[in-house]
Amino acid sequence: MIEKTRSDPIKIDPIHGDIKIIMEQLKNLRGIHYPDEVFQFSINQQTQIIINNQIKRYKSSIIYALKHKNVSLLFYYSNQFKIFSVIIGQQLTKDQYKDLLRLINENIQEYSHKIIEELNDRLKNHHQLENEAVQEYEKAHKYIKEIEQHFQSDDLFIENLRIQLENLGSTLDLFHPSIGIYLTNLHLIQNYFQEFQGFYIKYCDDLYVKFEYNFGRSIEEMILNKEFQQLNEILDKIFQLIP
Fold it and tell me: Residue 181 in contact with residue 128, Cβ under 8 Å?
């Protein structure tokens, strides 16, 4: 750059200058191949200390927001940190922002796993769920989903819950003592989580198929054939399974 301007620097004269000559000179100049390396801001030690302190404030605010499940605060400070890292332009600052995103993701995944495990323990132990409990799980999922969508992460909560329900459902046959509780819990879950409505319907359909297989006919056929005594015996078994 110095060599290019030492002998004959380009001067712009807005009154007497000729724009054509200037343009020809500019076209013949060699460009700067790596401008990011040539033009850099100089940051002194005091400025760097201020930058580091600001990053610490962002981190502590985000950790506080995660601890108290404050989504608005989390989004605000994460966005502020992102803008700050872009303005500063330091690779170190950008890396620290990426580290913070990983921290947020790990925190959400850990919380999601905790909720799923808690719900799964209740299901495996054949505890009948209450509305209040499922409402709390729904609230937790909304919190997790909102953060995952904002940071473009996968929604693992529903997928993990689906796996747990499928695994548990596959271990229960038609006359398992806990099949009634499982169906009641599944019905309650699909009321709050629309993602499981199809799963619930399919599971009920599969049970109906098993019923026909076990008894060789459907309830409708028994009624039409007036086999009421046999039907009563079957219904008694079913009612015993209802919690």
Answer: yes
Instruction: Give tens-digit pLDDT for 177-212.
Output: 778 888 888 999 999 998 899 998 888 888 777 776
Evaluate whether 123 touches 182 at the Cβ level (below 8 Å). Answer: yes
For residue range 212-236, what is the model confidence (pLDDT) as tens digits? Answer: 666 655 666 666 666 666 666 666 6
Give the dihedral of Cα atoms 160, 163, 168, 170; nearest 10 deg.
180
- 3-state SS, one letter per residue, for 15-44: CCCCHHHHHHHHHHCCCCCCHHHHCCCCCC
CB contact at 8 A, 196 and 188: no
Cβ–Cβ < 8 Å for 195, 158: yes
* Torsion, Cα of 52, 58, 61, 62 (10° steps): -120
pTM to 2 decimal places = 0.63
Contacts of 55-59 with CB under 8 Å at 24 or more apart are 55/81, 55/84, 55/93, 55/96, 58/84, 58/100, 59/100
Q: Structure tokens of 85?
A: 């890292």
> Measuring CA to CA, which residue among 75, 60, 58, 61 is closest to residue 147?
75
